[in-house]
């Protein structure tokens, strides 16, 4: 009877936990996106004033529950000298959200280089990639097709990974639900796939 009840309890309440990294250059809007995500997906979370967010030195952590999935986000600082810390988190991650500032055409190639370096790391093999074309509220910003064109030569390195480029405005929350729901769907589906190479060793 105990086994039956504890099995039922686990079935109803236990969550599958997934770690999702939020990466991208400084000023892309990663922390703003994390705050919006927490506000939208956590019932009792009183969101902070988005205009008070300052550059991240280190990392911010956030957790949300979506159905039976618990997503733990690690939002890492994007400044040049902090990017060398990103790969310390790769082995533990089940998904990556890569945020691009669509208003910053000058730094788009720099962003692409950081993205390419990140996806070349074998610890991220098979991990779903959500690319956010952020700041779509700003007139004349880069569109999703513009960004896809610049990033097109990354396609071979992305390979068979799930990848979605999603327009987003972290400041207002537009595109946040769509992106998170897509990520949840991908990481949950990956549980039922054979283990990634790094898990086998
Ligand atoms: N217009 C507009 N501004 C945004 C949006 N998202 C973020 N910002 C602004 O972009 C700036 C940087 O946002 P952050 O969230 O701190 O960026 P970050 O990627 O976390 O930066 P680091 O922590 O330095 O890596 C802030 O002034 C935000 O208000 C957006 O969707 N639209
Ligand atoms: Mg930040």
Kindly list the characteristics that best describe this protein.
about 200 residues, alpha/beta, Rossmann fold, 6-stranded mixed β-sheet, 6 strands, about 35% helix, binds magnesium ion
Helix content: 25-40%
Number of strands: 6
Which ligands does the model contain, each kind named once?
A: guanosine-5'-triphosphate, magnesium ion
Number of domains: 1
Mean pLDDT: 93
Kindly provide the radius of gyration, computed on alpha-carbon positions and rounded to a whole number of angstroms. Answer: 17 Å
Briefly, what CATH class?
Alpha Beta
Describe the protein:
This protein has 7 helices and 6 strands, in the order αβαβββαβααβαα. It is an alpha/beta fold. The protein has one domain (15-58, 78-193): Rossmann fold (3-Layer(aba) Sandwich), CATH 3.40.50.300. Strands 2-3-1-4-5-6 form a 6-stranded mixed sheet, with helices on both faces. β4, α3 (108-120) and β5 form a beta-alpha-beta unit. The chain is globular, with a radius of gyration of 17 Å. The mean pLDDT is 93. It binds guanosine-5'-triphosphate and magnesium ion. Residues 30-31, 55-56, 75 line the site of magnesium ion. The site of guanosine-5'-triphosphate has 23 residues, from α2.
């Amino acid at each position: 009877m105990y086994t039956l009840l504890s099995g039922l309890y686990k079935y109803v309440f236990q969550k599958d936990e997934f770690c999702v990294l939020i990466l991208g250059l400084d000023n892309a809007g990663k922390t703003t996106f994390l705050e919006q995500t927490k506000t939208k997906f956590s019932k009792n979370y009183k969101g902070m004033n988005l205009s008070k967010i300052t550059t991240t030195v280190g990392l911010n952590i956030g957790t949300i529950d979506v159905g039976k999935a618990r997503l733990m986000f690690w939002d890492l600082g994007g400044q040049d000298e902090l990017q060398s810390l990103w790969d310390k988190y790769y082995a533990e991650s089940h998904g990556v959200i890569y945020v691009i500032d669509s208003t910053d055409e000058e730094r788009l190639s720099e962003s692409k280089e950081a993205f390419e370096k990140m996806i070349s790391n074998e610890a991220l093999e098979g991990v779903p990639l959500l690319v956010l074309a952020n700041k779509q509220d700003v007139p004349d910003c880069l569109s999703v097709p513009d960004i896809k064109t610049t990033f097109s030569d990354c396609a071979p390195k992305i390979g068979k990974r799930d990848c979605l480029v999603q327009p987003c405005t972290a400041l207002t929350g537009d595109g946040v639900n769509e992106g998170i729901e897509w990520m949840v769907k991908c990481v949950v589906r990956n549980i039922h796939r054979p283990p990634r190479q790094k898990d086998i060793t």
